[in-house]
Write a structure and sequence with these properties.
Length: 459
């Protein structure tokens, strides 16, 4: 039979451990996690769970495990803190229901400085698991501080304001951050002893909170230049009282507004750049129509398409306001952006796009837009002679270290060696090798078509 080391604990120690239940309940309520109190036993490899505070929702346990055993093999942090008297932060463990968890352990010491128990805050060992960020800031937990587990210091490791009211609605506890927030708002006197209705910053009635109405709901309140998030939680502390959590989110709100304003400004800049490029393209089209030289006309047409391929990236950025561009969306717009003189050919060409639908940054997208536009333009102009129907297949792939775009057609093919010195191929090779640090691969067979594969890093 497992026994607590009761011979080593005096009445004051036992009373202090009993009071820890209030602390565990408050921490569980505030953090919405499972919190435990463990004591050492006469077996150095085992500890006893003497209290389990389960959150109302979100517990990782199917039952209350008070009275069960914690072993040194499964929960090393518990025994480290019991033996050394030092806090243990983010230790991996296996709990009583064989789940992988992370434990933060705080040693509890008596008046003589001897460790008599530990408080354990436990969460899932999962990248997808996060403590409720609406209730407290995700960076507020500093579990390695020693707290004496009386009312002083119970919640000072939380960077939000915490005020505890007893069942009569009188403030019986406040942490340093709450005092600071209220002082900033102009309430310089101590919060302790004041009635709920005199210091509440919302219209919520105390009696309704005791009935569970609106508990855990986060309310945003604006006072002068400050923005606060306020929530209420029922607790066992002080005879079923109420915990009020006040978070100063003024900086976060101001930062969010600044980001939104910058995003709008950036979108407007991209929109204007797109319009300016399209204006230049229109001027070049006008100039093209005035020329009689076919070679000069083709040069201007090619130049117009290159300008419009850059405009495509700014068009996408002006819509979404972000720095990343969806590669397949960009390719579709590029294909649709050829000048009207190619419509007859385009209507006879079937475009298929498949593969990974990844994003590329704005700098990379401009370079890729020029290259893909150059390839599509050559296919439309030269691959399908005598108005022959054709197919263009484009496959986008996201590899571990690089991206791929493979463009193939079923056209007449081309002599690769003879096209290496053409302006189009010079542009393609120069951009891929110099700007994107990538490679170009070309395979072509007469009357069977051409495949061009681009490999590039997302820089």
């Amino acid at each position: 039979m497992i026994k607590i080391m009761s011979n080593d604990l005096n009445k004051n120690d036992m009373d202090k451990i009993k009071k820890l239940e209030e602390t565990a309940s408050i921490i569980s309520t505030i953090l919405n996690t499972d919190v435990f109190i463990d004591c050492a036993t006469r077996d150095e490899m085992q500890a006893l769970v003497i209290y389990h505070a389960k959150p109302k929702a979100g517990s990782i346990y199917s039952k209350n495990i008070t009275g069960e055993i914690a072993t040194a093999i499964n929960e090393p942090a518990v025994f480290r803190s019991l033996m050394t008297g030092k806090p243990s932060k983010n230790y991996k463990a296996i709990n009583q229901e064989n789940q992988k968890v992370l434990q933060n352990v705080i040693p509890i010491k008596n008046r003589e400085g001897r460790t008599i128990a530990v408080i354990i805050v436990e969460v899932k060992d999962s990248e997808n698991f996060k403590i409720d960020t609406e209730m407290i800031n995700k960076n507020t937990i500093n579990l390695i501080k020693n707290i004496d587990n009386e009312k002083e210091g119970i919640s000072d490791f939380i960077k939000d304001g915490v005020v505890v009211f007893n069942e009569q609605g009188k403030a019986v506890y406040t942490n340093e951050m709450a005092e600071k927030i209220y002082s900033t708002l102009g309430l310089v006197d101590s919060i302790i002893g004041k009635k709920f209705e005199n210091i509440s910053l919302t219209k919520t009635k105390f009696e309704n909170i005791l009935l569970g109405v609106g508990t855990k709901e986060v309310m945003e309140v604006s006072i002068a230049l400050f923005t606060l998030n306020i929530s209420y939680h029922l607790t066992k502390f002080e005879n079923s009282g109420v915990v009020m959590i006040v978070s100063d989110v003024t900086k976060e709100k101001n930062d969010k507004k600044e980001i939104m304003l910058k995003s709008v400004a950036i979108k407007e800049i991209h929109h204007r750049v797109k319009n300016n490029l399209q204006t230049v393209a229109s001027l070049l089209r006008m100039q093209t129509r005035r020329l009689n030289n076919d070679e000069a006309k083709q040069i201007l047409k090619d130049t117009t398409n290159r300008i419009l391929s850059i405009a495509v990236t700014h068009e996408i950025l002006s819509d979404n306001g972000f720095n990343d561009i969806n590669v397949q969306t960009m390719i579709k717009l590029l294909y649709d952006n050829f000048e009207k003189t190619s419509i007859d050919k385009k209507e006879k060409i079937l475009l298929n796009i498949r593969g990974d639908n990844y994003n590329i940054n704005s700098e990379t997208s401009t370079a890729i837009a020029l290259v893909v536009s150059e390839i599509l333009q050559n296919i439309v102009n030269h691959a399908f002679v005598k108005n022959k129907d054709g197919i263009i297949n484009i496959k986008t792939s996201k590899k571990t270290l690089f991206f791929e775009i493979e463009i193939s057609d079923n056209g007449v093919g081309m002599e690769v060696d003879k096209t290496r010195d053409s302006l189009g191929m010079i542009i393609i090779n120069k951009i891929i090798s110099d700007k994107l640090k990538g490679k170009v691969y070309i395979v072509s067979k007469k009357n069977e078509g051409t495949t061009i594969k681009l490999e590039f890093k997302n820089i």
